[in-house]
Amino acid sequence: MARLKIATFNINGVRARQDALLAWLQREQPDVACLQELKAPDEAFPQRAVEALGYGAIWHGQKSWNGVAILARGAQPEERRRGLPGDPDPSQSRYLEADVNGLRVACLYLPNGNPWPGPKFDYKLAWFAQLHRHAARLLKDGVPTVLCGDFNVVPTDELDIYDPKSWRTDALLQPESREAYFALLEQGWTDSIRQVHGDAKIFTFWDYFRRHWERDAGLRIDHLLLSPQLAPMLRDAGVDRWVRGQPGASDHAPTWVLLDSAGGAKPKRSASTKAPTELATATKTGAKRSSASTNAARKQAGTSPAAAAKRVVPGSVSGKTAAKKSPVRKTATTKTAKKAPRAGAAVAKTTAAGARRSGSPKKP
C-alpha cells in the first residue's frame, strides 16, 4: 500500500441518513469505513447504493438499535468475526471484524452505560472486560489491526470534552470507563488522534440538545486505536466536522486516520501543557483517586464492579454463567467484488519495515 484512509462514523440511523452517508463517502473516499448505530435490520442496509459508489460491505444489523458495518473501497471485506467473543448480551449487534487490504479491521459500538449507576453501566463494564480479552488476542496474533468505533468514553477532562461539569454523572466520564479505556492503551494500542494532535482539544460528538454543535460544545468518544505494527505508519488523523454541520446530521462526525507506508508524521505537541502520555498518567491517577468515593456510592447502590460481574448480564466477566455465543449469521452481503491489487502483501512488507524503523439520552 502507499496510503490508506480508515474512518469510523456513528451514522445514528443508516436509513434516516443514507444520503449523508453517501455524500460523505463520495467526497472523502475513505478506503475503509466502519459504521455504528445502523439502527436497522440486515435487510434494510443500503447495499446497492453503497455498491454503486464502489464499496464492498458487510454488516451486522439490529432493528431500532445498535448495528455495525465495515465498508471497503474497491474490495470486499472478508468477515472474520460477528459479535464480540463472550459478549454478555449477544443479542445486541455491537462488534464486527474483517480483513481488508491486508489489515484486520475491528468495528465496535461499545455500550453507552447510562443511566449511571445501574444495570446498563454494569453491562458496559462487562462488555469492556470482554473487549480487553479479545484485544489482547488480536495483538498476540501479530496482524496489523485497527480497533475503532464509538467507545462511549471521554478519556480526559482536559482535552476531550468542552466542559466536564455538567457530565459528572454521565457514564462516559466515570473513572471505571476511563480506566478501561486506558487499559487498552497499556496493552500496546496507540490512540491515533492523540498521537497526531498532542494536547489539542478534539471533538467527535456534539449532542443535539442545548445547541452543542453551534457552541462547539463537543466530546471525543470515537477512537481509532492502532496495533504496534501500524503505529509507525500513522501519517495523519482528523475529524470530518463538515458532516456534523449538515441539515439533519448525525450527532457524531466521521473520524479518520491516514496510514502511509513511507512512515508517520511527528506528533503535534504544545509546550504549554502536558504531553499526552503524561496527561494520560495524571488522568488515570486522578481517576483511581476519585473512584474510591465513586465505588463507595456504587457499593451502597449494589452496583460495584464485583457485584456487576456476579449478578448482571449472563456470561459476564465472572465466567460462572458464560453466555452462549451467538451463532455466526450470514447476511445478504454484497457479491464478492473483484479484489483490489494485493495491497495486503504491501502492508505486510511495509509493516515489518515500519516496525524496524521505529523499533446522552440517545443510546440504549
UniProtKB/TrEMBL annotation:
Enumerate composition-biased segments (Low complexity).
342-357
User: Is Magnesium one of the keywords?
Assistant: yes
| Pfam families registered for this protein in UniProt | Exo_endo_phos
Locate the Endonuclease/exonuclease/phosphatase domain: which residues? 7-252
Q: Where is this region: Disordered?
A: 262-364
Domain of life of the organism in this record?
Bacteria
Q: Does the record bear Iron in its keywords?
A: no
Name its co-factor(s). Mg(2+)
Q: Which UniProt keywords apply?
A: Hydrolase, Magnesium, Metal-binding
Q: Which InterPro entries match?
A: AP_endonuc_1, Endo/exonu/phosph_ase_sf, Endo/exonuclease/phosphatase, ExoIII-like
| Compositionally biased region (Polar residues) | 272-303
Query: Could you tell me which PANTHER family the record lists for this protein?
Result: EXODEOXYRIBONUCLEASE III
Similarity comment: family membership? Belongs to the DNA repair enzymes AP/ExoA family.
Q: What is this protein called?
A: Exodeoxyribonuclease III
- Organism equals Cognatilysobacter xinjiangensis
Question: What's the name of its gene?
Answer: xthA2
